[in-house]
Amino acid sequence: MRKREIWKGSEVIAEAAIRAGCRCFFGYPITPQNEIPEYMSLKMPQAGGVFVQAESELAAINMVYGAAASGMRAMTSSSSPGISLKQEGISYLVGAQLPAVIVNVMRGGPGLGSIQPSQGDYYQATRGGGNGDYRTLTLAPATLQEAADLMGEAFDIADTYRNPVMVLVDGLIGQMMEPIVWEDRPGRTLPTKVWAAQGRRGRDHNNFVTSLYMDPADCEQHNLALAEKYAAMEANECRWEELMTDDARLILVSFGTPARVAETAMRNLRQEGLKVGLLRPITLWPFPGRRLGELAGEDHVKGFLDVEMNLGQMLDDVKLAVNGSKPVQFYGRCGGAIPHVAEVQEAARRALEEVE
Amino acid sequence: MTVIYEKTRGLQNTPLHYCPGCGHGIVHKLIGESLDELGLLDTAVGICPVGCAVFAGSYFSCDCIEAAHGRAPAVATGVKRTHPDQCVFTYQGDGDLASIGTAEIVHAAMRGEKFTTIFINNAIYGMTGGQMAPTTLVGQKATTAPDGRDPATAGWPIRMAEMLSTLEGLVYAHRVCVVDIPHLNEAKKAIKRAFQLQMAGAGFTFVEVLSPCPTNWGMEPLEANRWLMEHMAAYYPLGVIKDMGGEPG
Amino acid sequence: MAIHLFFDRDLCKGCQLCVSLCPRHILALDSAPNAKGYRPVCCTDESACVGCASCARICPDSVITITKD
C-alpha cells in the first residue's frame, strides 16, 4: 500500500508538475499561490530543470511561450489579477499551437479584489480570456489528490492537442492541506514535437513558430484547424463526477471547493430523505453539458441548483445545457467568501420547494 | 570560376518584403552571414519582433519564433535557459524594444541572460505607418508628432545601449550602422563578437543598429543614409559602449 | 581574369545604395522596369569591374552575385 502524505495544495501542484516531466517554471509572486514558485525555486533545479522568477506575469507567460516553442514541458502559475496579465501570452500560445500548463489559484476580484478564495475567473478561463476565437481546456480539481492526479494529465492533454491547458483552482485548494497518495500515472502516447524551434539540427528547413497569418483566407483556415482541435477535445476530454443522480429530484452542479461543500450538503439532505444529487464538472471547458442535458430529460429530475463562489458564471453553461427544460436555481458567494454547508442546504430546500 | 560574393546560406531564398533602401535587409544578411561563418546556423534560434521584421522567421535560415510585441527577450529567456548551449538571439525594432518591451529588455539584461539582442533603431514606427517612437529625435516629424517631437509633451529620445550598459549583466553593447562598407564591416564585427561572447557564456550582448527608414522618413534611400549620419549618429554616438567580454573562448 | 556580375533582376527595388558605393561608377538603373515595377540596377561596363563587392554587400535584397573566371 502506498504511503499517505500530508501536503499543501500549492506544493502538490508544483510537485505533480515536476513528476509529470515539467522541467521549466516561470512565475511571478502573487498571493495566494506563492508556494508554487517557492517550491519550484528549490525543487526544479534539483530535478535538473529551470526556474526563473520573471519581472512580471507578462514576461513569465512569454518565457513559457519560448520554452514551449523550443519543445519543453513548460508551466507557469499565478492568481487572478496575474492571470489577466498572462492572457496576451495564452492567446499567442493557442495561436502558435503551443502546449503549456497555466495554473490559476483564484482569488476575489474584480481588480485587486481580495486574496481569499474565489471562482470569479470561470468566464475568463472557459471563454478564452485573451483576444481571438479560442478555447483553453480547463481542469478544475476539487481535492488535493485530484490536483496531484490531474497535473500530469494537464501536460499530456496540452501535448496531445498542442494547446495550453489551464488548471483552475480556488485559493482554498491552493492553501489547504490534506492527505494524498502519489500514484504512478500511465502517461499517454504523445506526438513528436517536429514543429519545435530548437535549432535545425540537420533538418533541411527551418521551423518558424508563429501565430501570424496575414492573408485572411489563411487565418480563417488556421482558425478552422484550431476549431477541429476544440471539437476533438470536446469529444475526448470532457470529465465530470456524478453522485446520487440516479434518483435525484434536485441536482446540485458545482466545481472545486464549493462542490465539496455541496457534497456535504447533499449527504445531509439525503439523511433527511430529500433526493438530492451532485454533478461536479472536472473539465469546465469542455463543459459536461451533454450529460446535464440528458439528466434534464429524466422524469425524476425536477430542477438544478448551481453553486459557485462567484455571482453565477458556470450558471450560464448549466442553463445552456438544460435549455429551459427544467428550472435552474443559483446559490453563490463571492469576493472571497466561501458558502457554508447550511447555506447550501437551505438553498437546496428552497429550490426543491419551488420545483415540487 | 570563383565566387566573390553570393547570397548567404544564412538567409532563405524568400524575397524580402522591406521597402527600397531599408536597413532591415542589410542587417538580416549580416546576421545570416555571421551565423553561417561561426557555424551556428544549425543550432541557432531567432526570436522575431512585432513590427516590420515580423516576417524575419521566413527569411533567416535558422529556427525562429515569433514573439508578441515587445516580449522577445522573455521568449528568448525561455529558449536559452532550456537550451543553454545554443545560440539564441532577438531581433527587435525601437517600438518593440524601447517602448512596449522596455521591461523585458531591461530585465533580460539585468539577469545577464546569455543571448544576443540585435536592436534596429530607425527612430520611427515602420509597420504601423510612421508614428513617433521612443527613439524619434527631437523635432523629427512623425504621424503622431505632426509638428515634430516636442520634449515638453513627448520627452526625449532613449539611448537604449547606454541605458542598458549601466546593468552588470550586460557585457557587450555596441552601436553601429550600415550606411556604407566601412560601417557595415564594423556592424558585422559587432554582431559576430556578440554571438561569440554569448557562446562563451559571458552574459547579455547587445548590438544597436542605426537603420534608415526611407519610406516613413519621407526620403530617398541615399538621402536617408545622409540624414542618419548627420542627425541620428549625432544623438546616438556610434562605437563600443561597453565591452567586458575579453577574449571569447 | 574576368569578373562577372549577375543580377537577380526581379528582386531589385532600385534603391541605388549599390550605385552610390561603386568605385568605378559602372552601375546604373535600367530604363525598363522589373516585375515588381522598379527600375532595377544593371552594369554599364562589366569589364571595368574590380570585384570589390561593395555593391553586393550593401544590397538589402541580395540581388547581386559576383564571380571571377
Describe the protein in words:
The complex is a heterotrimer of chains A (356), B (249) and C (69). Chain A is α/β, with parallel strands linked by helices. Chain A has two domains: 4-236, 3-Layer(aba) Sandwich (Rossmann fold), CATH 3.40.50.970; 240-355, Rossmann fold. Chain A has helices at residues 9-19, 35-46, 57-69, 80-95, 122-126, 144-161, 171-175, 216-236, 256-271, 289-296, 314-322, 341-355, and strands at 4-8, 24-27, 50-53, 74-78, 101-106, 137-139, 165-170, 177-181, 208-209, 240-243, 250-253, 276-281, 283-285, 303-308, 328-332. The radius of gyration of chain A is 21 Å and the shape is globular. The termini of chain A are far apart. Chain B has 249 residues and is α/β, with parallel strands linked by helices. Chain B has a single domain (23-242), classed as 3-Layer(aba) Sandwich (Rossmann fold), CATH 3.40.50.970. Chain B has helices spanning 23-37, 72-82, 94-100, 102-111, 151-154, 160-165, 181-199, 214-217, 221-235, and strands at 2-5, 45-48, 63-66, 88-93, 116-121, 170-177, 204-210, 239-243. In chain B, strands 3-2-4-5-7-6-8 form a seven-stranded mixed beta sheet, sandwiched between helices. The longest helix of chain B has 19 residues, at 181-199. The radius of gyration of chain B is 17 Å and the shape is globular. The relative contact order of chain B is 0.15. The model of chain B has no long low-confidence stretch (mean pLDDT 97). Chain C has one domain (3-68): Alpha-Beta Plaits. Chain C has two helices and four strands, in the order E-H-E-E-H-E. Chain C has helices at residues 17-21, 54-58; strands at 3-7, 27-29, 41-43, 64-68. Chain C is globular and about 35 Å long.
